[in-house]
């Protein structure tokens, strides 16, 4: 089993380009920074080429909706939890390839 590690950090407010760059970095791929800056469209085929089980941990509903929408534009679906304890419960049920987590969460900080 591989040890968990932080592959990238994205700070709020989340921008599509920074989320894309973080996912590409966490996957260990290289992104053409110049092409990414010129493009305002997220890669809708990224999930098809690099499938991931994603857990989104965010207590703010608006931020949840934004993150889900950005992930959806890349072809990803995510399980959503609203506090730190729910993260642990979700991890008990299954493993994830990627955790997108708010650092300050109710019940238990990220």
Description:
It is globular, with a radius of gyration of 14 Å. By secondary structure, the protein is α/β, with parallel strands linked by helices. The model has no long low-confidence stretch (mean pLDDT 83). The chain is 40% helix and 11% strand. The chain starts with 15 loop residues before the first helix and ends in a 9-residue tail after the last strand.
Describe the SSE topology.
Elements: H1 16-26, H2 33-38, H3 46-49, E1 54-57, H4 61-73, E2 78-81, H5 84-93, E3 98-101
Parallel strand pairs: 1-2, 1-3
Q: What sort of overall outline do the alpha carbons produce when their principal axes are compared?
A: globular
* Rounded radius of gyration (Å): 14 Å
Strand percentage, roughly? 5-15%
Largest sheet: spatial strand order: 2-1-3
Show unreliable segments. Answer: none
N/C terminus separation: 22 Å
SSE order in H/E notation?
HHHEHEHE
